[in-house]
Amino acid sequence: MRTNYPKIVEIAETKSEAKDIKTFRFRYNKKVSTGQFFMVWIPGIDEIPMSASYTDNFKGVTVEKIGEATSALFKMKKGDKIGIRGPYGNGFKTPKDRVLFVAGGTGIIPVASLAEKIKKKNSLIVFGAKTKKELFFIKRIKKSCSKLLISTDDGSFGYHGFASDLAKKVLEKEKFNQIITCGPEIMMKKILDLGLEYKIPVQASLERYMKCGIGICDSCAINGYHVCRDGPVFDDRTLRKMRDFGKFKRDASGRRVRI
Amino acid sequence: MKLSTEISGLKMRNPTVLASGVLGETGESLLNVARNGAGAVTTKSIGIKPKKGNKNPTVLETEHGLINAVGLANPGIDEYENEIKIALKSKIPVIGSIFGKDKKEFVYLAKKMGSFGVSAVELNLSCPHAKGYGIEIGDDKKLVYDIVKNLKKSVDIPVFVKISVHTNIVSLAKNIESAKADAIVAVNSLKGMKIDLDLRMPVLSNKIGGYSGPGIKPVGVRTVYEIASSVKIPVIGCGGIMNGEDAVEYMMAGASAVQIGSGVYYRGVDVFRKICKEIKTWMKKNSYKKIDEIVGIGLR
Questions:
Q1: Structural domains in chain A (count)
Q2: What is the mean pLDDT of each run of 10 residues along chain B (300 residues)?
Q3: Residue among A217, A225, A242 with most chain B CBs within 10 A, to mutate
Q4: Bridge partner residues of B62 (DSSP)
Q5: Does A119 map to a domain?
Q6: Do A223 and B28 touch (CB under 8 A)?
Q7: Which domains does chain B have, with CATH numbers?
Q8: What angle do CA B165, B170, B175 make, to 5 degrees?
């Protein structure tokens, strides 16, 4: 069986979520765990990794328009064809009560999906964005019964400041048994340090440039680990072993560049 | 039972070598391959300047193997020094794979690799998916002779030449030997293509890619057999080696060592340890004491 080959699917539904953020839904009958990702092929343009935002039979990816591939995808409509490989990666380990989620920007995509799946009333989501206009999935998060705290870098909504600062304030007052984080790596590094300080295990979902998605091309390598196969979700013990975490990533040519 | 061997002065604890292009972009991944039992590791092919390679899709699976057109993505020789430094901690031979567009580039790259401390350089004269490089140079017999001859004058580490099947193998091999190369590596991936039936278009962005994995093994064995029958320098076999018996087959055809690339995908990064164990099982069953005893016994 050829498992690592793009399956061609039709876009069944598109939904604009916020400025430059759109969800694309499609039928794809493989089992997907929250935190896993697809390699999405936009024919003739590129193939890029995208975190699954909906994991039931009616799958979905939610995408920010940031480059050539995502811009091309944004122009696609219902009925247009894309290729899907995967799901790849490990996904989140089902967290123990009580969970603190910390998401920055599009990091909310797998976080919202996981919060929705575990549906724990006592969990809390800290969601940070640059500005009010970049907030999305709010209704979806509220439905998942989690408490939601919002921060914006410019103060246009909620707490004025970074999600990591807001998370610190939360941790000063409340107790949690697990932290799940996804977003800018500098934010996740701060969350990892907070986890160490408050002795709470952390799971973080990383992002790296990818080619193969199946652990052989070495593009997504970080200190001997491969984000596509060993990750994208790593636990605190592993993250602390990664000297490059929060500091360096690799560009398309494999050069080590500052984050 | 003795799996250790020596090729052109490279002392290897066993004959399994990581093939270029798989897990060789970063030093720490090379270290990880060493920890998983490889006898030597080959770096990703490195050029003069950083190269992004082709757009995705660059790797896909077919019925009997993988097709890739990564397109020689690499961080450039200067930046790569740090990766070599890390890889050298493995204490096993590190082979520096290089690609250039002409004699001058190859000499420059080989000297650099030598100064970083690699045990040998491997010339990529066979990449099937990068314009102006690889196979486009490897197909020119005179140019190959010239490159190898010049390299041998400029560096004192062994020079391995990795060649493609898409050429006149025997005459190219004789040429490489007469230019005083230390070993020939055969084969690189074969030119291949996959067209998607729904979209009616090639899947790889580069359209043409390199086909590797189980499907190419008979081609590799035949090629090694032909080369080993016509030259005296060592041959390193490559192409579709998934298990110990595949490795033994290549060695019977004349390979002194074997390279493993796609096998990492099919059996995991510990494929090296697994293959060594399987080679030992075969040797025990067939009463061989030293791995070298198998090399070339099938040449009849």
A1: 2
A2: 95 98 97 98 98 96 96 97 98 97 95 98 88 79 92 96 93 96 97 96 97 98 98 98 98 98 97 98 97 97
A3: A217
A4: B65
A5: yes
A6: yes
A7: 5-49+74-188+212-293 (3.20.20.70)
A8: 105
